Amino acid sequence: MPVPVLLITGFLGAGKTTVVNHLLAHAAGRRIAAVVNDFGAVNIDAELIAGASDGVVSLSNGCICCSLEGDLLRTLATLLRRDPRPEFIVIETSGVADPADIVRNLMDPLIWREAPLETVLCVVDATTTPEKLNGEALLRSQVRAADIVAFSKVDLVDAAGSQQLREAIRALHPAAVVVDAVHGEVPAALLFPVDVDRVPAPREPGPRRPTADRFETLSWTSERPVSLPRLQQAIGRLAPKLVRAKGLFETVEQPGRLMVFQFAGGRATLAPGEAPAAGVPRTRIVFIAEIGVLSKAEIDGIMEACVEAG
């Protein structure tokens, strides 16, 4: 199974490491491997540390943390060889790094097959003024690369200042999802979307709510393959209301082969997947939206049109 990558970017002092710390300390059963530039800055609770060797700190909750030394792709290859293999890889970039360069490296076909880039998160200091955002080219590049923009230090700014920054972010990158990251906490449903391989065959009677009360997760399954042109039209209709989406599906045009679908930051991508497994639906797509924006009935109505009649 491929190991999804979460790339965390942000300007110097924005609070990236605080987000990483929170992810590692609240992994909720996920085996997360964190790759960081400043190993000493990761302030992991002492009771979580199980051992350290070869520049890797193993945590008692199954996570690990390692320092980025040298080539990123070599570091990823090392992590992918670990037993047990991590379920997610989190990469924290330097505050002076342009994430576009790292994204290009992660697009290497060999890396993408084993560790596809799933989400880019940009941490932004909430006290940043629109003038600084507009005047700092690197910060603008970090925001533009992001699927999700998380405001840190929200307690240090008033409502008016926060709203001004939100509007500036929207003007720069309208498709980005903007959330507050109090104490480094970002809604896990946005960072680690539901594994579509674990979506049960029966349709859910209602939405499953992530821990944060701003977003909800809805899914759609089908036992029949879908028409790719119809699916593209359906996603186009749903896109304005979606925060994230992820799925596996078999198409009428290419029977016997699954396609992997991702939607984030207003961008949709398709990649070849494995052959369909026995006993699971041929099409399994998970949608994440703000609560109340989408209904299960609306999704069903739009998605059912993708299935070939017969």
From TrEMBL:
Signal peptide: none annotated. CDD domains: CobW-like. GO terms for molecular function: hydrolase activity; nucleotide binding. SMART domains: CobW_C. One of its GO terms (cellular component) is cytoplasm. It comes from the Bacteria. Residues 215-307 form the CobW C-terminal domain. InterPro entries: CobW-likC_sf (IPR036627), CobW-like_C (IPR011629), CobW/HypB/UreG_nucleotide-bd (IPR003495), P-loop_NTPase (IPR027417), Zinc-reg_GTPase_activator (IPR051316). Gene3D superfamilies: CobW-like, C-terminal domain, P-loop containing nucleotide triphosphate hydrolases. It catalyses: GTP + H2O = GDP + phosphate + H(+). Keywords: Chaperone, Hydrolase, Nucleotide-binding. Pfam families: cobW (PF02492), CobW_C (PF07683). PANTHER family: COBW DOMAIN-CONTAINING PROTEIN (PTHR13748:SF62), COBW-RELATED (PTHR13748). Zinc chaperone that directly transfers zinc cofactor to target proteins, thereby activating them. Zinc is transferred from the CXCC motif in the GTPase domain to the zinc binding site in target proteins in a process requiring GTP hydrolysis. Belongs to the SIMIBI class G3E GTPase family. ZNG1 subfamily. This is GTPase. It comes from Bradyrhizobium jicamae.
